[in-house]
TrEMBL record:
One of its GO terms (cellular component) is cytoplasm. GO terms for molecular function: 4 iron, 4 sulfur cluster binding; metal ion binding. PANTHER family: PHOTOSYSTEM I IRON-SULFUR CENTER, PHOTOSYSTEM I IRON-SULFUR CENTER-RELATED. It comes from Candidatus Nitrosoglobus terrae. It comes from the Bacteria. This is 4Fe-4S ferredoxin iron-sulfur binding domain-containing protein. InterPro entries: 4Fe4S_Fe-S-bd (IPR017896), 4Fe4S_Fe_S_CS (IPR017900), PSI_iron-sulfur_center (IPR050157), YfhL-like (IPR047927). Residues 1-29 form the 4Fe-4S ferredoxin-type domain. Keywords: 4Fe-4S, Electron transport, Iron, Iron-sulfur, Metal-binding, Repeat, Transport. It holds the Pfam family Fer4.
C-alpha cells in the first residue's frame, strides 16, 4: 500500500527529505504522497521513514492504493531501473 498524509499535517517539512523515492512533495495545503512512487520504503529501509519522523503521526496506509509486499518490491525495482 502507498502511504497517505492526512489533513492533520502541520507542514513541518521533516518527511519530504526522508523519502528515498522522492514521493513526498508540498501540496496546495499540506504535504502529499504520490502513490506511484511510494514503496513504503521497501527496498531502502525496514520501516517507512516518513512515518518514523512525523511528529503528529498523520501518515497512514492509503486505502485507495492497496499493494502487497511483492508489488511494493516490484515497484521499487522498477523505480531503480527507470
Amino acid at each position: 500500500m502507498a502511504l497517505l498524509i492526512t489533513d492533520e499535517c502541520i507542514n513541518c517539512d521533516v518527511c519530504e527529505p526522508e523519502c528515498p523515492n522522492k514521493a513526498i512533495s508540498q501540496g496546495e495545503e499540506i504535504y502529499v504522497i504520490e502513490p506511484k512512487f511510494c514503496t513504503e520504503c521497501v527496498g531502502h529501509f525496514n520501516t517507512p521513514q516518513c512515518v518514523e519522523v512525523c511528529p503528529v503521526e498523520c501518515i497512514i496506509l492509503d486505502p485507495d492504493h492497496k499493494e502487497t509486499q511483492e508489488e511494493l518490491k516490484a515497484k521499487y525495482q522498477a523505480l531503480m531501473v527507470g
